[in-house]
Specification:
Elements (H helix, E strand, L loop, with lengths): L1 E5 L10 H15 L3 E7 L7 E4 L2 E6 L10 H17 L5 E4 L2 H11 L4 E6 L3 H10 L3 H24 L2 E4 L2 H11 L1 H5 L1 E3 L15 H8 L7 E5 L8 H13 L5 E5 L5 H10 L6 E5 L6 H7 L2 E4 L9 H8 L4 E3 L5 H5 L13 H12 L8 H12 L1 H13 L10
Parallel strand pairs: 1-2, 1-5, 2-4, 5-6, 6-7, 7-8, 9-10, 9-12, 10-11, 12-13
Antiparallel strand pairs: 3-4
Helix pairs in contact: 2-3, 3-5, 4-5, 8-11, 9-14
Length: 402
């Protein structure tokens, strides 16, 4: 089969949770012998078509349109449709992971092609957060943009043969935004993790040394895109409180994003420069060791977490995940240990959770136990197979086939 996947960015270009789902999907489909193409927004200078590990990567660059111009959204659709016309005139199946390019693909190929759509987070909820922290002009035009995106997402859902979501939280949001009839069509297929890749290590001290991390302090590790909804500013405030109490630890912050400079300045202002390290983008090959080496992973999300693949990766590597009770996070964490959840996403409650961990007041779990439970509930062989079956429109027997 010739299959098109549409996503926001290629995982190789800008790693995000939704891009990782699309990346895993494409790799597995290719492994099963399908002809796989992935369409995403690119940047000037990157190739429009690239073959990487047997998967065709397509990139489109939308025309520059002012934020107030209603044509801003259609610029993405026109640019992506033009790329499809040049490189991929026919497909057998479409799997959309983002509204703008998802609708462009549906329009280009027609409704007779099997189509699946995965809602990672409702587009109006996500973009409302992004635009709230944007320029004055963007905030003023946000209602127009949000209404347009809401219509596009609704059309993608109505026209898709199969709809999936990674959490019940997301389905509940869709019910509120798009109505119960569309929500009833959404299939819950959770995220997954490669439990053969993310595994505990026997000697975490040696793993820390290999990464150049302090070996004599507890390491708290987080991996986030550096944007406002990830709650990193609150994590820094919480760290400042704990440092003032004399608790010793080192916080490793992985990831890139527009708030890096602001967060680094906050770190200096709070006097945390010796206790916090900004790692920048953590290369994919280094991720398993980083998870396994830390003492605990921290997920301090402030708003809208519709699943949290990184939590699964950390637990598969045998590490506890200390998290805020935001969005879908409790759906995952409560399967392991409810005491890992803070009372709220506020800095004071994040600090209290970390304090309990650092003073040994939280239950301990063997690394092997965490890994085994993650494998039982979220291993990619099982869950990704079900996801692939929805993509290609075949029955459940395809989910377990090789």
């Amino acid at each position: 089969m010739k299959i098109l996947i549409t996503t926001i960015r290629h995982y190789h270009d800008q790693p995000t949770g939704s891009a990782k789902v699309a990346f895993d999907e494409a790799a597995e489909l290719r492994r099963r012998g399908e002809d796989v193409w992935v369409l995403a927004q690119g940047a000037p200078g990157l190739p429009e078509h690239e073959l990487k590990d047997g998967v065709h990567l397509l990139r489109y660059v939308p025309a520059e349109v002012a934020p107030w111009n209603p044509a801003r959204g259609s610029a993405h659709q026109k640019a992506s449709a033009a790329v499809l016309a040049r490189h991929l005139p026919h497909v057998d199946a479409i799997h959309g992971h983002i509204p703008l390019t998802g609708l462009a693909a549906l329009d280009f190929y027609g409704d007779s092609v099997h189509s699946c759509y995965t809602i990672h987070s409702p587009v109006t909820m996500e973009m409302a957060i992004v635009w709230r922290n944007s320029s004055f002009l963007r905030r003023m035009t946000a209602p127009i943009g949000l209404a347009m995106l809401n219509r596009i997402e609704a059309e993608c859902l109505r026209r898709s043969h199969v709809i999936t979501a990674l959490s019940q939280y997301t389905i509940d949001c869709i019910r509120r935004i798009h109505g119960k009839e569309l929500a009833k069509r959404v299939r819950l297929i959770p995220g997954w993790v490669d439990t053969s890749r993310f595994v505990p290590v026997e000697d975490r001290g040696r793993a820390k040394a290999e990464l150049g991390w302090p070996a004599d302090l507890p390491i708290l590790f987080t991996l986030r895109r550096l944007v406002s909804r990830m709650g990193l500013d609150r994590l820094l405030v919480a760290s400042h409180r704990l440092q003032g109490e004399g608790l010793k630890f080192h916080l490793m912050i992985g990831g890139s994003g527009p708030l890096r400079g602001q967060l680094e300045e906050q770190t200096r202002t709070l006097g945390l420069s010796n206790s916090v390290t900004f790692l920048g983008r953590v290369e994919d090959r280094e991720l398993p060791l980083a998870y396994a080496a830390c003492d605990a992973f921290v997920l301090p999300t402030a708003e809208l977490e519709c699943f949290g693949l990184i939590a699964l990766e950390a637990m598969s590597a045998g590490r506890p995940v200390l998290a805020t009770p935001v969005g879908a996070i409790p759906e995952v964490i409560r399967k392991f240990d409810s005491s890992w959840l803070a009372r709220s996403a506020e800095a004071e409650d994040i600090a209290d959770l970390l304090r309990q961990y650092l003073t040994g007041k939280l239950p301990e779990h063997a690394s092997a136990q965490l890994h085994d439970q993650t494998h039982r509930d979220y291993n990619c062989e099982q869950v990704l197979g079900e996801f692939i079956a929805a993509t290609v429109g075949r029955d459940e027997h395809y989910a377990g086939s090789d």
